[in-house]
Each structure stands twice: as structure tokens, then as C-alpha cells.
Amino acid sequence: MQTITRQTLLDKAVSLLNSGAVTCVLGWKKGEFDYDITPAIFRSAEDLEANFVWNDFCGANFSKYLVAKTDRLDGKMLVFLKPCDTYSFNQLLTEHRFDREKVYAVGIPCEGMADIAKIKAITGDGISSIACDEKISVTTLYADAPVVIDSKDVLLERCENCKSKKHVAYDELLCEEGETIDSNRFDEVARLEAMTPDERFAFWQNELSRCIRCNACRDACPACTCEKCVFDNPKSGVENKAPANSFEEKLFHIIRAYHVAGRCTDCGECSRVCPQNIPLHLLNRKFIKDINEFYGEYQAGEEVGSRAPLVNYTQDDIEPGDVFNRGGDNNA
Amino acid sequence: MRKCSLDKLDLVFAEIAKNAELYLPVDGSDGGAVYQKWTEGTKRSEKLNTVKSPKDFFFPQTEDLMAFKTEGKSIDVIDTRKAAEDFVVFGVRACDVKAFDVLDRVFMVEPQDSYYTTKREHGVIIALACNKPSETCFCKTFGIDPKEPMGDISAWETDSEIFFKANNEKGEALLSKLSGLLADCADDAADAQKEKIDAIMDKLPLKGLTTEGFGGGKTEELFNRPEWAELSESCLGCGTCTFVCPTCQCYDIKDFNTGNGVLRYRCWDSCMYSDFTKMAHGNNRLTQKERFRQRFMHKLVYYPENNDGLFSCVGCGRCLAKCPISMNIAKVMKKMGGKASE
Amino acid sequence: MQVKEFKPLIVAFCCNWCSYAGADLAGNNRLNYPADVKIIRVPCSCRVNPMFILRAFQRGADGVIICGCHPGDCHYTSGNYYTRRRMATLFSMLDFLGIERERTRLEWVSAAEGAKFAATMNDFVEQVTALGENKRLEDLRCKR
């Protein structure tokens, strides 16, 4: 469950809107069911009262919306930021992708967001309602009694391995200052690294073969904010729209992950939005892990203005040929 | 109507697989269901439906059309088509079967699309009634009855038995080959199951969704409505909804330079993309609002206008489940159309 | 039936200011290296976008080598330092996907090192020959 209530956020939004401090609010809008929540811009207190929600399904990272939505905006936009969202927020500021003056950022605590797929794996299909209190209580069309689930058991992968409860950017914080967490987020990468190349190849072949090239991973990514993506440009020679074969899939996913390497804050949106449940975050985390090991610990978005590792160098960086000879890695 | 007990279903599959490739939904490694070729021991998925729709069988995501090779001044056109083989798809839901009607009206009118038509002729669809519809289902909105799936053969499943009924000659031909395994039964044998399905349909959260306010002739009325801006506001412009959709039929034809020739292929395209239907001057839909509007206007207004009122949405609910930001056709219909008749 | 001997196709991206001249020197000195190495001249090793490497594999390369100026010697001061970081992370990623790590290499070869150029290419060709055909990053459409 979340420690901060909808009412607290609503009161904050309404008072800022009524005082004229902000002209609109970027928040979560309720959907048809209790879990299908849409990011939305609220412009009136009435709209907020009627449609604003805050529960265990508010996973969407708002930072990317600031790029498009604050452009030509009159006044300020209020945005609620969970700790992980603030890293993307800073990274976008570092890249000068939106005007900080146009945003009023309110940091809110987050206890981790629920994954509806994991819930459905427990309760089955046909959910008629979900109540998010201390525990998540799910009523379905096919069971007589609601199924009660501990929210800790159905967290999104990225929340299971949450890297920080600390807000690195805000104008106002609605909770105590949090701490970064020693998470186990690189465990799965390490597990893959310990496999033989054949096993790794088989693993990724299986995962990537499901790709339908919907581009959701790219379009949801707060680090992917190019005005024109190379994969949308007919002149690039790689704009093939569909995963015609296994080469295309690899090309797309290597380049997507590489393009954000050093800038990716590990917010996990790519995996959250993938309709085919491909663990795309593992590609990004591999880069983060490598960068940490080769060039020193670096967390994108931790501070505004930091120089990303791949646009930086030292005179005695590791040679590519030595990357595999660092000991402990005996799977050649 | 014919029937067999569920534990004999594998024998039926084996019999079908003797003469044709048989595909059915199985659980994929990520938990989602996916159509896979049946071989001895393949376990059928218990999920309501597959993540991707079965339109792939007739209209694959990418399909080679032809190839070219140049030598000096001559160009060789190479036919890349393979000989079509018979196949059977088991477990297609009523909504997805209806989606084939939508596709047929695009690909099988003059000039016929031979790539699609050939596959359609060689495929036999065994449709299966939905015992456990999901909260995202709204097929009834479009007049589809999940207890009466069409297809070449309709099938109903109970806890212990499965019933088959042929709907045309193609279906009858397949069923007659299975006569050794199936027993004749009364035409109302599956009625108890049908009643159960009806009872559940009445409980679905989207049961009140109506098509009122949509249909042919509504272009003027709907096109400039202010709600489009609000609805499309958070659309990311990805192609998830169009690629999981059983009726989306837009494609692009592209030439791929292989380094030693040219391969002409077609692949699904998405009206959500910035380079969709790009012309010399660019894309005529400049913002995501226009692209978003195009998708829903096409499904709910343009298509029915050109196809005797048939909507090109079948209420399968895939886009409701998969949209990264949970904006979907049900929300659009509620916002723009007639109010639900609760 | 005689089995056709496998001859790998190697793409070598060579910096205009060092290894490209190094290749020239190797030629002038009549040093042998296999003709299977196809050299692409680039203004700096830093010009090599990761996409170039993948595209080379797509079009049938069995190995890709990038040759640049020794660290500290870049004609543009620091280009090769960026190359080094890029290739270290990219090669590591390719390995993570299960693609043979021996198919890619980065070497520093100056304009004076004709012998090193020839030796490097001989060694790399031998290494890739041992691996055989590139199967894991191949594009079937591009097969002849």
C-alpha cells in the first residue's frame, strides 16, 4: 500500500491550482477498471476531485511528458514525482529537454507499484474490482470471495529491486527525505553473465523473438527524446517497422539500449510497458553494471549537469580487449 | 453436433495433425498465450486469449512479396512465395473469428490480395466458445456472441467434454475425417454451457458499452469534437494497440536492399507512427491527436461507412490490456458516444 | 565432394591518420595479410557508430575490427578515447547477447606500424576463421 493518501495529493493539487501557482496538474486519471490508470493533465479542481487517483497502479513515469507538455505552456505545471521519477527528471534537465521554470515538482513517497500481470497470475482473469488498502484485495467474476494479496508479492520488477527512495529533485517534498537502497538489481545480469555464451544466446533469442516492434519501450523511455528517431527515419536504412528476422530484433534492441547507455536511470519503464514481457531492463542494466565496473560508479540523473560516462574518458580507461579478462569470468 | 471427452482431445489433435499443421494457443515462456504448432505432448493454454491475435496466420507481421535481381540491364523478378499448405487453427475466440470478416472485406474484394486469399483458403478455423470472459471483453457491443463463435467449426467446452459443429463444407470435411473419435450428439447438447456463458456476460463491467453515436455518416459530427485533444493527450505514439489488434490491417510495402538484390516485403504499419502514409510533403497527420483520432475514426466511422455498417472493432480487449498508458477504444467510446445503458 | 574452405569476410574500420596509412605501409613493405580483410577508411576511429558494426555483420561480415591511433595520439586530440569506451561497452553487450566475443576487436595501429597492421590482421583472420561463419548476427535475407 502507499503511505501517502490520495486526499493529501488532491488537497495539494487543488490548493496550488486555486492559488494560481500552477495552471495545470500532471497526474493519474482513473480508468474503466481499478488498475488501468492513464497519465492526464488536469486543468480544474472539479476534474481533479472527480478523476484524480493515487493507488498501487500509478506506475507511469511522468518525466518524459514534461518535454512535450511544458513546451509553450503558460504558467507552471504541477507534477507529482516518485523517487525513481526524479532521476529521469534530472537527466532530462541535464540534457536541456525542458524548462525547469515551468515545472513545480512535488516529491511523493512510493512504496512500490503493483504489476497487474502478477496479480492476474494469482487471481486469474475477470477482475471486477481491486481495493488497495493495507493489502490488495481483488474481486473476480469467477471466485466467490475476494483474493487478498500482500502488495510486496506483486511488485513491478523495478520496484522489487528499487534502487532509491530518495528524491533527487523537487520543489516541495511531501514526505521525509529517503535514502538510496543497496538493491539486488544487478543479480539477474550477473546470473546471465555467468552462463555460457550459448546459453545467453538461447536466452536472448527466446526473449527477443517475441518482439513485435511496437516501439513502446522506446516511446515510454524518458531517455529517448530525440525529435526524430533513427528507426522512424526512412532514410536511415534501418527503418523496417517490423522485426523481419532475428537480426532486426537484435539490431533494434542493441541500438535502443546503447543509445541510452550512460543516460538511462534504470527507471524500468521499458519493461513495464512491453506487451510481450521482454525483460528489456536487463540490457540497460548490463550497460549500467559495465559502466560502474569499468569507469566507476555512476547513477544517471543523480545530479543535474553530470557528464555521462560515454561522453567522457580518462587516459587510462580499460581496453575493450581486457574487458573479458577481469577475473571471475571463466565462460569463454 | 458431435462430441468427445476432453481426455480424448489429444487424439483428435493427433488425427488432425496427420493431414495438416495444427496450431493452438499454448503458454509462452513469459506467461502470455501464443499460437504454436501442435506436436505430441503440447499443452493447451488455459488463458482466455493469446497476446497477439490470430490474424498473423493470414496476414503475417512481415511477409516477403517478391525479390529482384539485376544483372547488367536486365531485372529478374523472383517469386518468393512458397506452396501453400493446409493448416488448422484451434481455439480461436468468437471476437477473433469475426475479425477475419473485417479483414476479408479488405483483402478479398477486387483486386484480391492473393497472398491473403491463398492462406485463407488453406486454413480451417476451429472456434471455441469463451467459458471465462475477461473484464476487458466487450464483444457484445459489436453484436458478437461469445457462446456462438463462427469459424469453419464451432466448439464448446465443458468440464469433461468438448462439442463440435461444422458451419460449412470445409468444417464438415474436417469433422468427417475425425468420425472415428467423435460421437454424434443432439444439437442442443452444449446448451447448458451456453447458458453459463450468458450468465457471465451479464456481469462483465463493459456490458453497457454501446456503439450509439458511431457508424457510417458520423464523420462530420465526430471529426472536430474537442474531446480528441484530451483523449490523445498522453498517447505515447507507440504501435502496441495496432499490433495486438485483430482487425488493424494497415501495412507498408518496402524494398530491402540485401546487398546483392532487392527484397520487396510488406509489414504491418501503424497509424500511430509519425511516418505512417508518408507522402512527398510529409505526414498529413501532424500531431499525435490526429493520428490517435484516425485510429478510432477508422474503426468506428470510416470502416462501417464503407462496409454496410460493420464496425472494425470486435471487442477482444487486447488494447485495453496492453496499452502502456491505458488509453483505449472503450474509453474513447464512453467519452464520445452514447452513454451506457445501465 | 570437396568441402569449400571457409574464408571469413573481415571488415576493418581504419582511421585515416594512422592505421589506414599503416595498411599502406604494410603494402609498401610487401607484408602479407589476407585479402579477406576489407578496409573502410574513416576520419577517426571515433566515427564508427555501433550501428556500423552491426550493419557490417548484417551484410555478411564474419568479424569486425576497428583500428585507431594509439591513446594520446588522436589527430583530433581525444576521439580514440571515446572509441575505447564505446567499444568496451558495445563488445561487452554483444558478448552478453551470446555473440562470440572473438568476432570484434579494437587495435591501436600507428602510421609507422606496417608490421603491426599485417600481424594484427593475420591474427584476427586466423581467430575468426577458427570461429567459422557468423551465424548469431547474420541476416538471412543478405545471404548470397
Layout of SSEs?
The complex is a heterotrimer of chains A (332), B (342) and C (144).
Chain A: H1 6-19, E1 24-29, E2 38-42, H2 45-51, H3 63-69, E3 77-81, H4 83-94, E4 103-107, H5 116-123, E5 127-132, E6 136-140, E7 147-149, H6 157-160, E8 172-173, H7 187-193, H8 197-208, H9 216-220, H10 246-259, H11 269-273, H12 281-295
Parallel strand pairs in A: 1-3, 3-4, 4-8
Antiparallel strand pairs in A: 1-2, 5-6, 6-7
Chain B: E1 2-5, H1 9-19, E2 21-27, E3 33-37, E4 62-71, E5 74-79, E6 87-92, H2 94-107, H3 114-122, E7 123-128, E8 153-157, E9 161-166, H4 169-177, E10 183-184, H5 191-201, H6 219-223, H7 227-232, H8 240-244, E11 251-257, E12 262-268, H9 288-306, H10 318-322, H11 329-336
Parallel strand pairs in B: 2-6, 6-7, 7-8
Antiparallel strand pairs in B: 1-9, 1-10, 2-3, 4-5, 4-12, 8-9, 11-12
Chain C: E1 10-15, H1 19-28, E2 37-42, H2 50-58, E3 63-68, H3 79-96, E4 104-108, H4 114-131
Parallel strand pairs in C: 1-2, 1-3, 3-4
Question: Would you write up a description of this structure?
Answer:
The complex is a heterotrimer of chains A (332), B (342) and C (144). With 332 residues, chain A is α/β, with parallel strands linked by helices. Chain A has 12 helices and 8 strands. Chain A has 3 domains: 6-115 and 156-173, no CATH class; 123-154, no CATH class; 187-322, no CATH class. In chain A, strands 2-1-3-4-8 form a 5-stranded mixed sheet. In chain A, strands 5-6-7 form a 3-stranded antiparallel sheet, with helices on one face. Chain A is globular. Chain A starts with 5 loop residues before the first helix and ends in a 37-residue tail after the last helix. The relative contact order of chain A is 0.12. In chain B, 30% of the residues lie in helices and 21% in strands. Chain B has helices at 9-19, 94-107, 114-122, 169-177, 191-201, 219-223, 227-232, 240-244, 288-306, 318-322, 329-336, and strands at 2-5, 21-27, 33-37, 62-71, 74-79, 87-92, 123-128, 153-157, 161-166, 183-184, 251-257, 262-268. In chain B, strand 11 and strand 12 form a beta hairpin. Chain C is of the alpha/beta class and 144 residues long. Chain C contains 4 helices and 4 strands; from the N terminus they run E-H-E-H-E-H-E-H. A 4-stranded parallel sheet of chain C has the order 2-1-3-4, with helices on both faces. Chains in contact: A-B, A-C, B-C. The interface between A and B is large, with 49 and 56 residues.
